[in-house]
Structures are given as structure tokens and as C-alpha cells.
Amino acid sequence: MKLSLFDYDLPEELIAQYPLPKREESGLMVLDRKSRSITHSQFRFIGEFLSPNDLLVLNDTKVIPARLVGKKCETGAKIELFLVAEKERDIWEALIKPGKRVKNGTVVEFGEGILKAQVSAKLEAGTYIVRLKYQGRLQEILSQIGQTPLPPYIKRQPEPIDKIRYQNVYAAKNGAVAAPTAGLHFTQELLDSLQQKGIGVTNLTLHVGLGTFQPVKAEEVEAHKMHAEYFEISPEAVEQINLCKQKGGRIVAVGTTSVRTLETVADNNRVVPQIGFTDLFIYPGYQFKIVDALITNFHLPKSTLLMLVSTFASREFVLEAYQEAIKQRYRFYSYGDAMLIL
Questions:
Q1: Which long-range contacts (CB under 8 A, 24 or more apart) does 240-249 make?
Q2: What separation in angstroms does the CA of 49 have from each of 29, 199, 222, 257?
Q3: What is the distance of C-alpha 317 from the center of its chain?
């Protein structure tokens, strides 16, 4: 399957650079797979398209301030470190820029030396293994000197607003280096109102890393290998999901990360409690086992996220919807508008 099948042209001005003043005022495009119809709405009205027996499955991962700007201890040269995933205590996989002159043993310091990183290996994927050295608690240090890891298509430096808005209101477990952005449209008040209507809510965790936003470079889609990401799904969440299925309700995955986690733990129309890593790559031809509906944002051309959505709703229908979104001036990507696929 050719990568070019998932390409489209997007006017640059439609790439959202800032969030809207209110989360729930994002646009909402609703796709009905059976009728192949498209409805335009606003996210705060999402409850009108859901039913009392439905269950929202949220990813409660929390974005860490993973972008660090420092200098080489040896030369004083400016260097940027982007933490990707913790491999074991204080041992991290990271992106380094510029990485050309970085070698094993290179030490970089941040925040006047309160945090140091020593490079120990370069991996085939182009990432590095670094050992972090510090006194105290790492998360407190990162909160002090780290920056919000905004994606590269947001053409500005991180600002104080991003610490709040590039984070879901229900984020709870530190570990993501990018936000599961489908959830950015929810407020706690909106979630409460949906629950009052009888719509269930449960959580799982997938720490968003390279697997989610790594670009596809292979011309043949099938040749792409996903970077594994840590996930966990509790017995309590599993019980809610399986009960929803038994009652004939719909499992509404909030975001592609929730989809990949649910499909990873699926077993004969049920899910099982599990902790582990998933490198599940969903592209056309995949048969969904658990997920019945999907809340998602508008995704980059040729991305694994667009491929997953195109699998769920058919590539032709999704690309048709994207053209309609461009025509209607929807806002795209992380801080953009939302899509509900039923």
C-alpha cells in the first residue's frame, strides 16, 4: 500500500498555533460511517451524538516538560535534549539537536547544572540513550527548567498557556512527551454533564512517545515499524468496558492512543487487564475488535494517525471529510478542531 494514498494538501493558515479561549468551543465534525454523512457542530454538543449506554475511554497520561535547552559541559555549545521515554530509572531515550558532534561520554548540563545528561549510546533510530544526574526529584526539576514539548508544526516557542492547555483536564500519570490531543476539548464540566446523561467514563494509560508521532518514511506502508509505547489498563477499566459491550453500548475511544491500547488488549470482543508495551500499527485491512466510535483531531498527511482513522472510517470517506474540513475552515492538528466518527 503506497504512502501517497494518505496525502492531502493543507493550507498552512489552518494549522492551529494556539488553542481557542475555551476548550469545548472547538469545532466538531461528525462522520456517520453507515450513511456516509457529515454533520457540522461544536464540541460542547457532543452529547447529542452519544447514547446513555456508551462508554468514553480516556487516556490519562500526563505530558512532562520534556524539552530541555542546555549546553555541552566541555565546549559550552548550545544543545537541545528531548526526552522520549524512560528505559529504567534515570536512563532515558532522547532526541538530541544538533546531534552531529555528540558522542558517547558527552555531558550536557541544564539549569546551571541542576540537571546533567551523559550520552551513553546512539541507537539505529537516530535517538540516544542518556543517563540523567541530579539531586532531588526529577519531575520537580523538569517542571522548573523543562519546556512544554510542542510539536514542530506549532511555529512558536512554548508559552505559559501551553502548560495548561497542552494537557488534558483529566491527565494524571506522568510519562507522555506529546498530548493525546483528542481529549483537549473536554472540560470537567462537560464530562460531568455527559455522565449525568448516563454516558460512562473510564481511563487507561498510554504514554505518548515516538510511536505516535514518528513520521512514516517507507514508501510501502506495510514496511513501517512503530516505536513501542508503554501502556496499562486496570481491572476496573476492563470491567466497565466489558460490561458496556455486554449491554450493547458503544466503546467510544477518545484519541488514537486509546484505540491502539484497546485493540492491543482485545480478546474475543472483550478486553483483559494488562501492562506492557504496544507497537500496534493500524492501517487499512485491520479489523477492529473493540472500538465502536472514535473521537479524534485532524491529522498530518502520511501519518500513522491518519492511517488509523482511515482504517476506521475508510480512506475515501476520511479524505473526503478532510476536504470538507478545509473548505469549512476547520482548525487542524493538536490545537485544532475535533472529529467524531460513529
A1: 240/55, 240/200, 240/202, 241/55, 241/57, 241/202, 241/271, 241/290, 242/270, 242/271, 244/53, 244/54, 244/55, 244/200, 245/269, 245/270, 245/290, 247/53, 248/53, 249/51, 249/53, 249/54, 249/55, 249/200
A2: 11, 11, 34, 22
A3: 23
Confidence of residue 211 (pLDDT cuts 50, 70, 90): low
Residue identified by cell 451524538 is 49
Which residues, 6 or more positions from 216, have their beta carbon under 8 angstroms from its beta carbon?
3, 224, 302, 303, 304, 307
Global pTM value: 0.93
The fraction of the chain above a pLDDT of 90, given in percent, is: 87
Burial of 140 (0-12, 13-18, 19+ CB in 10 A): exposed
Q: How far apart are CA 197 and CA 192, in angstroms?
A: 9
The full set of domains in the chain, from first to last, is 3-63+163-341 (3.40.1780.10), 67-145 (2.40.10.240)
Cell of 58: 480516556
End-to-end CA distance of the chain: 25
